[in-house]
Specification:
The complex is a heterodimer of chains A (about 280) and B (about 170). By secondary structure, chain A is of the alpha+beta class. Helices cover about 35% and strands about 25% of the residues of chain A. In chain A, helix 2 packs across helix 3. Chain B is mostly helical. Chain B has one domain. The chains are: A alpha+beta (about 280), B mainly alpha (about 170).
């Protein structure tokens, strides 16, 4: 620092020169209209460029909050779509029936996710204090992510669709034909799973959408689970299988939404009357 | 005090001369020879560099006020007085610098004096013409005016030195 001051002091003549020169230039520009226009023409693109950069930097810094806003907007739109599906509407929006929608959405972020286990799990940054309960469905931007299994006051964990065995059995259906099946992950690939229980006559085409069937209270009907990967082989047809690619890109997952079924308790009571 | 008054009167004289006479000499548009740098050439070698620059700036600014040229003379004179100590160091020997020499044809000899004046005028005219045109879009015009005005000013200074200051000898 001391050396810097010494250098600055050594160059004091230069500073005085630059100061006087600067003042002179100001006088010149103020005196002549031609100089003013030249300066304006030269500085306008530079100023524009400067402010563009500043705006870009500002946008970059505020991306997180914009992301949050977008996420809320996506929530709202999904809610609208689901309301229409629940009410059997495809295009029109009926505000009177909006209150009948039995699901609400809670936004959350993934803070932990495993991808290479036989029982892959996730952890969310929300817990019971924010209204999360066990057996709530979790969906991401692409489609179904998994189901919450354990809830703490501030965090919650659950199983993803990538679960070998009977950890998570999801009832799905083919969107094109409405045929039902169960989703099973064999632990071989992080991108694919298979549907079991399809009838032999069911035609399955590549890219057909596989969605939730709505037969459980965890997920409403029509949320994407995956897309058929390839045509069924004879062996698959015989076994009732079809291979699908997950709609959710687990490796790029960040924001998710937790589904809260409004009539969960009522449905549980009705379906299992012997439970307390 | 007498020396200060002497310089003050000289400065004033050059200022008035520039206002009333030299600025009217315009052989053509863009051609504007100057005489007043002669006043700065004659300042003693040991005159402080920063004081020389301040004097140059003030002189130029007064000239601009009188001629309505914004800060053209102030900028170019400041630049010239900024480089003057370095040029003097190059032209003068150590002994000459220590004797507080006043550069002139008498003390330096005509050739050395004009050679020194040429370099200083070159700096002066470069900034003057650059800020006059205020554009790098016409480099040939800038170069012509720069070199042309330098030689014209040099000729004017040489003429004045030859006519008036030689007689003092």
């Amino acid at each position: 620092m001391k050396n810097l001051f010494l250098i600055l002091r050594k160059l004091r003549l230069l500073w005085v020169f630059l100061l006087f020169h600067g003042i002179s230039l100001v006088f010149i520009v103020r005196q002549f209209k031609y100089h003013q226009s030249v300066l304006f023409e030269t500085s306008a693109p530079l100023t524009r460029e400067w402010w563009t950069r500043v705006k870009e930097a500002e946008h970059f810094l505020f991306l997180t909050s914009e992301n949050e806003l977008l996420h809320k907007e996506v929530n709202r739109l999904r809610m609208q779509v689901m309301q229409q599906q629940v009410n059997g509407e495809s295009l029109c929006w009926n505000s009177d029936t909006a209150l009948l929608v039995p699901y609400s959405w809670l936004p959350a972020r993934l803070i932990h996710l495993t991808l290479n286990q036989s029982q892959n799990r996730f952890t969310l940054n929300r817990g019971s204090l924010q209204g999360l309960k066990a057996d709530m469905g979790v969906i991401g931007p692409g489609g179904v992510v998994g189901v919450i299994t354990q809830v703490g006051p501030h965090l919650a964990t659950g199983l993803t669709l990538m679960n070998e065995g009977q950890g998570l059995l999801l009832s799905v259906r083919l969107k094109s034909s409405g045929e039902l099946g169960n989703l099973v992950w064999d632990g071989k690939s992080a991108c694919c799973a298979r549907i079991e229980g399809l009838a032999t006559h069911v035609k399955v085409n590549p890219s057909d959408t596989v969605e939730t069937s709505g037969l459980s209270s965890i997920f409403p009907r029509g949320i994407a689970v995956g897309y058929i990967l390839e045509k069924r082989s004879d062996q698959d047809v015989e076994a009732g299988y079809a291979t699908l690619r997950f709609a959710t890109r687990f490796s790029a997952l960040d924001h998710v939404m937790v589904l809260d079924y409004t009539y969960q308790a009522e449905q549980d009571t009705l379906e299992n009357p012997e439970l307390p | 005090m007498i020396a200060f008054l002497n310089y003050f009167v000289r400065g004033l004289l050059f200022l008035v001369l520039e206002w009333l006479v030299v600025s009217k000499l315009e052989p053509g548009p863009g051609w504007s020879p100057v005489l007043y740098p002669m006043f700065f050439f004659a300042l003693p070698v040991q005159f402080s560099a920063s004081a020389r620059m301040m004097l140059g700036f003030a002189f130029g600014l007064l000239l601009d006020l009188g001629l309505g040229t914004g800060g053209l003379h102030a900028a170019s004179t400041t630049a010239m007085t900024f480089v003057q100590p370095f040029i003097l160091r190059y032209f003068l020997s150590v002994d000459e610098r220590e004797t507080n020499l006043k550069p002139g044809p008498k003390s330096l000899g005509w050739l050395r004096y004009l050679w020194m004046a040429f370099w200083l005028l070159l700096v002066h005219q470069f900034f003057y013409q650059l800020y006059s045109l205020f554009s790098l879009g016409a480099p040939v015009l800038l170069l012509m005016r720069w070199i042309g005005n330098t030689f014209m000013s040099l000729a004017l200074i040489g003429l004045v030195q030859g006519l008036f200051f030689k007689k003092k000898k």
